[in-house]
C-alpha cells in the first residue's frame, strides 16, 4: 500500500528526515517511536503533504501512485488521513459543516453524488456512537474551545466519517487521560479493515497496549535505527531510547 | 474646500420649535467654520473627503416613491417588524408599519415628532453628537436634515422585536445628498433593538450623511445594528453617538459593505457606574472601496466595562481603516476594557490602516487592545486540505469563518442569517468560491443539520 524509499526532507533548510525506508501493507499496524526531535512527526506530516516541509530526495508510492506529486487534498481524497498532534481550531465553522464538506469532497473525487444534510445526519449518528458523543457536538465550531481530549476524539470522529485507507495517528495519545485514551484507541481499532493500514506515531508505549502494532520502528536522527515486533515497544519502555540513539550516533 | 451640499438652501420648516431652528443655525455655522475635515486632521488622516466636495452634490429634490417589491429584499424576511422606510430621504408612510408597539413607546418620523411633541427629544437631539472629530459633518447634518426616525421609550417599556429603519435610495437620488437625523431616548430599564439599514436600488453618486443620537437612562438596554450596503459609487458618512447612564447596556454592530467611500463613527460615553458597552463591526471591501470606522469609548464613570471587536476583509485595491479609542477618565476606576481589530487581506494590493488606542487617566483599570493584519493562516488551510477540502474551497470557508463569529454577536437571528447570506454572496462576487452544494456554512445551518 505504502512504499517509502530513502525519503529525505527539510524544514526551513534544516534536514529532518535523512533517508527513511518503510513499507506498509494492507491490514498492518506500524508504530513509529522515537525521542523528541527524531523526525517522527515530520514523517507523518510529509506523508499528508504539509507545505512547511520540503522533500529533498527519495520516493513515496501509495497504491501505485507517486504520493509526493499529489496535493494534500488529493491525498486525503485517495484515503490518507492524518490525525493531528495539535488539531486546529476553526472558529466560525461548525463541526457538522466541516465534516460534510470533507466527506463530500471525497465523494466528488470518487465521482459520487454529494450527500445532502439530512442523509449526512444519518451517517453521522453511527459515527458519533464510536466516540461516545451526542449530536450536540456537531453544532460547535471545529475544535474551538475543545479540551485536549475532545480535540483528539474529534480527530477520530473525522477519521470515522472519512474511513481512510491509510490512517496516520500523530501522537494522538499525548494529553489524553486514560478514559479518553481508551475511547480513542477503541475508535481506531473499530475502524480497522483488512484493506486498510494504520501508522501510529507515539513517544510512549502506553497507546500500543490498546492499538497493538504488528511492527515497531524506532526513529532517531531522521532515520529508522531499529525495527521489530510489538515487544520492541516494551523494551523501549523499560530501557528508554538512549541505547538506540547512541548506537545510531556511533553508526553515523 | 467647497461645500458638499448647500445647507442654507433648505426650506424653512414651520412646525419646528425654536430650539431646533437654533440647532440648525449652530450646525450651519459650525460647518461653515470648519468645512470638511482633511487628512491633515488626525481623526481623518487616512480618509480624504475631497472626492465628496468635488462631486458637489446638492440636496436630493426627487421624491421617493417605492413599492413593497422594491424594499422586500431589505426586510430580512421579517415583514411584521415595526419599521420606518425612507426613500431618497423622504418618509414612505405606505411602506412603514408602526402599529403593534406596546404602551410607552413612540416610534415615528422625526419631522412628525418635532411637529407634535418635540419635548420628547429636547435635551437629546443636537445635544449628544458633540465629538470634535465629527463636528463638521454633524453640523452639516444639523443644518440640512429633513427627517429620520425618533424612538422614545418611557421607563420600563420593552419592545421585543427588532425595530427596522430602512433608508433606501433609487436612481432619482443620483448626484444628490441626504442627511438623515435620528434620535433614540430610552427611559430607565427600557429595552429596544434597532436595525438601521442603508441600501440602494440603483448605482449613483450620492451622499448619505446620517447622525443618530441615543440616550440610555439607568438600566436601559439598546441594541443598535447598522447595515451599510449603499451603491458602490456612493459616499456614506455616519455618526452614532450614545450617552449611557448607570447600568445601561449598549450593544452596537456596524456592518459595512457598500459605498465607494464610507466613514462610520461610533461613539459612546459611559457616564454612570456599571454601564457596559459592546461594539462589534465587520467591514468588507473590494475594488477601490475605502471603508473607515472610527470608534470612541469614553469611560467617564467607575466600574464600567467595554468590549470591542472589529473585523475587516479586504480584496482588490480596497483600503480599510480602523481607529478605535478607549478613553478612561480619572474618575473611571475599575474600568475593564478590551479592544481588538483583526483584518484579513485577500489580495496583495488591499491595505489596512489600523490604530487601536488607549488613553488611560485612572490607575486601577484593566485595559487591553490589539490589532492584526494578515492573510489566511497556513495551518488551518492545511488542516482543511488534509481532510480533502480543495484549496480554493478551504480559503473561502476560512474567510467566511473569520467573519462569521463576529456576526454571531448580533442579537437578532434573522439579521445574522441575512448577513451570513450576504457574506456568501460577497465571497462569490469577489470570485472566491463558496464551498458546499447549498452554501450552508453558519451555525444556523449546522443547527438544522443536527435538528
List keywords for this structure.
heterodimer, A: alpha/beta, Rossmann fold, 6-stranded mixed beta sheet, 4-stranded antiparallel beta sheet, 12 strands, 37% helix, B: 451 residues, alpha/beta, 10-stranded mixed beta sheet, 9 helices, 21 strands, 21% helix, globular, disordered C terminus
Largest interface chains and counts: A-B, 46 and 37 residues
Strand content of chain B: 35-45%
DSSP E strands of chain B, number = 21
The level-1 CATH class of chain A: Alpha Beta
Determine the CATH topology of chain A.
Answer: Rossmann fold
CA gyration radius of chain B, whole angstroms: 21 Å
Low-confidence stretches of chain A: none
- Derived from helix and strand composition plus strand pairing, the structural class of chain B reads alpha/beta
CA-based gyration radius of chain A: 18 Å
The secondary-structure element order of chain B is HHEHEEEHHEEEEEEEEEEEEEEEEEHHHH
- So how many helices of chain B? 9
Distance between the termini of chain B: 59 Å
Report on the structure:
The complex is a heterodimer of chains A (252) and B (451). Chain A is of the alpha/beta class. Chain A has one domain (2-251): Rossmann fold. Chain A has 8 helices and 12 strands. Chain A has helices spanning 40-48, 72-77, 95-109, 117-130, 148-162, 178-190, 230-239, 242-251, and strands at 2-11, 14-24, 29-33, 53-62, 65-66, 80-83, 90-94, 141-142, 166-170, 197-202, 215-220, 223-228. A 6-stranded mixed beta sheet of chain A has the order 6-9-10-3-11-12, sandwiched between helices. A 4-stranded antiparallel beta sheet of chain A has the order 2-1-4-5. Chain A has a two-stranded antiparallel sheet with strand order 7-8. In chain A, helix 5 (148-162) runs parallel beside helix 6 (178-190). Chain A is globular. The two termini of chain A are 30 Å apart. Chain B has 451 residues and is of the alpha/beta class. Chain B has 2 domains: 7-271, no CATH class; 377-451. In chain B, 21% of the residues lie in helices and 36% in strands. Chain B contains 9 helices and 21 strands. In chain B, the strands form 2 sheets. In chain B, strands 1, 4, 5, 7, 8, 10, 12, 14, 16, 18 and 20 form an 11-stranded mixed beta sheet that branches. In chain B, helix 7 packs antiparallel against helix 8 (413-429). The radius of gyration of chain B is 21 Å and the shape is globular. In chain B, 56% of the residues are buried. Chain A binds chain B through residues 48-52, 71-73, 75-77, 81-82, 84, 87-98, 100-102, 104-106, 109, 114, 116-118, 120-121, 135-136, 138-139, 141, 158, 162, and chain B through 378-380, 382-391, 393-394, 397-398, 400-405, 435-438, 440-443, 445-450.
Amino acid at each position: 500500500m505504502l512504499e517509502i524509499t530513502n525519503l529525505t526532507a527539510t524544514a526551513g533548510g534544516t534536514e529532518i528526515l535523512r533517508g527513511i525506508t518503510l513499507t506498509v501493507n494492507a491490514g498492518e499496524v506500524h508504530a513509529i517511536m522515537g525521542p523528541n526531535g527524531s523526525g517522527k512527526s515530520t514523517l507523518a506530516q510529509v506523508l499528508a503533504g504539509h507545505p512547511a516541509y520540503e522533500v529533498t530526495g527519495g520516493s513515496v508510492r501509495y497504491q501505485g501512485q507517486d504520493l509526493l506529486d499529489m496535493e494534500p487534498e488529493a491525498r486525503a481524497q485517495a484515503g490518507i488521513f492524518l490525525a493531528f498532534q495539535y488539531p486546529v481550531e476553526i472558529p466560525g465553522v461548525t463541526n457538522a459543516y466541516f465534516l460534510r464538506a470533507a466527506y463530500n469532497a471525497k465523494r466528488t473525487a470518487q465521482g459520487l453524488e454529494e450527500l445532502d444534510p439530512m442523509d449526512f445526519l444519518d451517517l453521522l449518528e453511527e459515527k458519533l456512537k464510536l466516540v461516545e458523543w451526542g449530536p450536540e457536538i456537531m453544532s460547535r465550531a471545529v475544535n474551538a474551545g475543545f479540551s485536549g481530549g475532545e480535540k483528539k476524539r474529534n480527530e477520530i470522529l473525522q477519521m470515522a466519517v472519512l474511513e481512510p485507507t491509510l490512517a496516520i495517528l500523530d501522537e494522538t495519545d499525548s494529553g489524553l487521560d486514560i478514559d479518553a485514551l481508551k475511547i480513542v484507541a477503541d475508535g481506531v481499532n473499530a475502524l480497522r479493515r483488512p484493506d486498510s493500514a494504520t501508522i501510529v506515531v507515539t513517544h510512549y508505549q502506553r497507546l500500543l497496549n490498546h492499538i497493538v502494532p504488528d511492527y515497531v520502528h524506532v526513529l532517531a536522527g531522521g532515520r529508522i535505527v531499529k525495527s521489530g515486533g510489538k515487544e520492541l515497544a516494551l523494551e523501549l519502555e523499560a530501557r528508554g531510547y538512549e541505547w538506540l540513539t547512541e548506537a545510531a550516533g556511533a553508526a553515523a | 474646500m467647497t461645500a458638499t451640499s448647500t445647507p442654507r438652501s433648505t426650506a424653512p420648516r414651520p412646525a419646528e420649535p425654536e430650539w431646533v431652528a437654533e440647532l440648525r443655525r449652530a450646525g450651519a455655522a459650525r460647518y461653515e467654520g470648519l468645512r470638511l475635515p482633511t487628512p491633515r486632521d488626525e481623526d481623518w488622516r487616512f480618509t480624504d473627503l475631497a472626492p465628496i466636495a468635488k462631486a458637489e452634490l446638492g440636496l436630493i429634490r426627487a421624491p421617493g416613491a417605492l413599492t413593497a417589491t422594491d424594499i422586500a429584499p431589505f426586510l430580512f424576511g421579517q415583514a411584521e417588524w415595526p419599521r420606518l422606510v425612507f426613500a431618497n430621504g423622504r418618509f414612505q408612510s405606505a411602506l412603514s408599519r408602526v402599529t403593534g408597539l406596546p404602551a410607552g413607546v413612540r416610534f415615528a418620523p422625526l419631522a412628525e415628532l418635532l411637529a407634535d411633541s418635540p419635548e420628547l427629544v429636547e435635551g437629546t437631539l443636537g445635544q449628544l453628537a458633540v465629538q470634535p472629530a465629527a463636528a463638521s459633518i454633524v453640523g452639516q447634518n444639523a443644518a440640512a436634515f429633513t427627517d429620520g426616525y425618533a424612538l422614545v421609550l418611557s421607563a420600563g417599556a420593552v419592545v421585543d422585536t427588532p425595530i427596522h429603519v430602512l433608508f433606501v435610495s433609487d436612481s432619482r437620488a443620483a448626484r444628490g445628498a441626504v442627511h438623515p437625523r435620528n434620535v433614540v431616548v430610552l427611559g430607565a430599564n427600557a429595552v429596544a433593538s434597532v436595525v438601521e439599514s442603508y441600501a440602494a436600488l440603483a448605482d449613483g453618486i450620492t451622499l448619505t450623511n446620517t447622525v443618530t443620537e441615543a440616550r440610555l437612562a439607568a438600566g436601559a438596554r439598546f441594541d443598535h445594528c447598522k447595515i451599510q450596503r449603499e451603491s458602490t459609487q456612493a459616499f456614506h458618512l455616519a455618526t452614532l453617538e450614545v450617552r449611557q447612564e448607570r447600568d445601561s447596556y449598549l450593544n452596537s454592530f456596524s456592518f459595512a459593505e457598500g459605498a465607494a467611500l464610507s466613514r462610520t463613527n461610533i461613539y459612546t460615553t459611559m457616564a454612570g457606574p456599571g454601564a457596559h458597552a459592546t461594539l462589534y463591526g465587520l467591514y468588507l471591501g473590494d475594488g477601490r472601496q475605502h471603508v473607515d470606522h472610527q470608534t470612541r469609548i469614553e469611560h467617564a464613570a467607575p466600574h464600567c466595562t467595554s468590549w470591542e471587536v472589529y473585523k475587516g476583509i479586504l480584496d482588490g485595491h480596497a483600503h480599510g481603516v480602523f481607529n478605535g479609542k478607549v478613553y478612561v477618565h480619572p474618575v473611571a476606576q475599575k474600568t475593564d476594557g478590551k479592544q481588538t481589530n483583526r483584518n484579513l487581506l485577500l489580495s496583495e494590493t488591499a491595505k489596512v490602516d489600523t490604530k487601536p488606542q488607549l488613553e488611560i487617566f485612572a490607575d486601577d483599570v484593566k485595559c487591553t487592545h490589539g490589532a492584526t493584519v494578515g492573510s489566511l493562516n497556513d495551518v488551518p488551510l492545511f488542516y482543511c486540505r488534509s481532510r480533502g477540502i480543495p484549496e480554493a474551497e478551504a480559503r473561502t470557508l476560512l474567510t467566511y469563518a473569520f467573519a462569521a463569529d463576529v456576526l454571531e454577536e448580533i442579537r437578532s437571528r434573522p439579521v445574522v442569517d441575512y448577513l451570513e447570506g450576504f457574506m456568501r454572496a460577497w465571497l462569490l462576487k469577489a470570485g472566491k468560491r463558496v464551498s458546499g452544494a447549498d452554501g450552508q456554512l453558519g451555525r444556523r445551518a449546522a443547527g438544522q443539520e443536527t435538528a
